[in-house]
UniProtKB/TrEMBL annotation:
<dbReference type="InterPro" id="IPR001752">
    <property type="entry name" value="Kinesin_motor_dom"/>
</dbReference>
<dbReference type="GO" id="GO:0005874">
    <property type="term" value="C:microtubule"/>
</dbReference>
<keyword id="KW-0067">ATP-binding</keyword>
<dbReference type="InterPro" id="IPR019821">
    <property type="entry name" value="Kinesin_motor_CS"/>
</dbReference>
<dbReference type="Pfam" id="PF00225">
    <property type="entry name" value="Kinesin"/>
</dbReference>
<feature type="domain" description="Kinesin motor">
    <location>
        <begin position="1"/>
        <end position="358"/>
    </location>
</feature>
<dbReference type="GO" id="GO:0003777">
    <property type="term" value="F:microtubule motor activity"/>
</dbReference>
<dbReference type="GO" id="GO:0005524">
    <property type="term" value="F:ATP binding"/>
</dbReference>
<dbReference type="GO" id="GO:0008017">
    <property type="term" value="F:microtubule binding"/>
</dbReference>
<keyword id="KW-0493">Microtubule</keyword>
<keyword id="KW-0547">Nucleotide-binding</keyword>
<feature type="binding site">
    <location>
        <begin position="86"/>
        <end position="93"/>
    </location>
    <ligand>
        <name>ATP</name>
    </ligand>
</feature>
<comment type="similarity">
    <text>Belongs to the TRAFAC class myosin-kinesin ATPase superfamily. Kinesin family.</text>
</comment>
<keyword id="KW-0505">Motor protein</keyword>
<dbReference type="GO" id="GO:0007018">
    <property type="term" value="P:microtubule-based movement"/>
</dbReference>
<dbReference type="InterPro" id="IPR027417">
    <property type="entry name" value="P-loop_NTPase"/>
</dbReference>
<dbReference type="InterPro" id="IPR027640">
    <property type="entry name" value="Kinesin-like_fam"/>
</dbReference>
Amino acid sequence: MLGESIQSTDKAGTADISPLSTRLAFNIPQDVAVSGFVNNNKTQHHFTFTGILGMEVLQDEVFAHLGREVVLNAMDGYNSTIFAYGQTGSGKTFTITGGPERYADRGLIPRTLQMLFQEIRRRGFHSAGAGTDEEAAPVMYQVCVSYLEIYNEMGYDLLGEENRKEEGRQGESGALRLPRVVPLEDEGGHCQLRGLSVHPVSTEEDALNLLFVGDTNRAIGETATNEASSRSHCLFMLTLEGRRPGKETVRRSKLNLVDLAGSERVHKTGGNGLGRGGQTLREAKYINQSLFYLENVILALYEKRSHVPYRNSLMTSVLRDSLGGNCRTVMVATVATERSHTEESLSTCRFAMRVGQIRNDAKQNEDLDPFQVIKRLQTQLVAARAEAGWTEKGGKEVPLSEEEKDAVRAACHDFVSRCEPGYEGIWTRGRGRG
Ligand SMILES: Nc1ncnc2c1ncn2[C@@H]1O[C@H](COP(=O)(O)OP(=O)(O)OP(=O)(O)O)[C@@H](O)[C@H]1O
């Protein structure tokens, strides 16, 4: 893990938060009942994090601390994830997606998209001042967007087409239905998501439109602490492919921005939890269960156990790489620091400390692009055949057929496109005519 940060929703609670410090202290008087539990042991709890961002920290600063490096990493071929974890109403959606009222409240996803497309434009040009020729050459990117929701332990495509209605999630009104997404494990143990649509995007605007469509389809309900509570885990997924024209290598990466549903105590679910015809309680049960499985995974990784129970829930299966695998991961632990939420805040901080101990093994995903390799081999084959044909004909100059001429032109074109800028000239040496 790269680290974890705290975004608090209240400065004046029991927690002592100094802006941009790394230490968070909770002061709980002994023998005082706080949100249902009596503290007999410690009066102070200290936690150390990579960074602590108070509620007053603006969204652009949050992005500068957490998002910038993640975008650059992903563009360089490293799988990257930012996930927000914390109790309901503590600011996960505000951090990941943003607030609905002001443009300045845009969260990590829209800011990531903005920076990504700015950087794509910048890298698309030959950069004269860069160190090596390799670094200076332009890079072309392909970006695709998917948006997955995990609701009551089922996967749904938030960008799915409407015509697959009968299979999907039905909203309270009965009107909203989304296509199901089913996890499948490949030979490498990686989770593939059948039914999740993948949308190529070439501009920030295209990607933002998809974000908007997906957000409109999310399962939202009211809880005691949040009137617009996310009742599901939502994963906004970007897949990036970067290649330099004429080169055979391609860098591929995934960038996941994850808003987990908030844990909540059933006694705090509002009334007896039977709101919305018992739906609130049912949702809380699934949410708490999947967060429990997430904690089991983190505990197994923390204790370096040989078996990590990723398969227990859809969320941990999907986040397998992000948790202890080939990924650079940032966790944002959100806490509400009011006294009434101390129990949940302490549990979030303990969880975050454990997550911070886990070391991922992130690799730069650089592969040979099979299409480029096939193209080169085809060109070489045609050239070799042409040469063999010429030899067979006793070295006599025989006019090339139209097909051979095309192949030679393609080979020349390919050669020229590989030449780096800065060559003094291109020398040709050939035989035959055409
Ligand atoms: N840093 C902040 N500045 C201003 N408002 C905030 C901040 N953090 C959260 N809020 C507000 O607090 C409310 C709850 O936040 P949010 O919906 O992000 O919580 P959540 O953790 O995603 O909750 P849930 O798990 O129930 O979905 C929202 O109205 C949000 O706009």
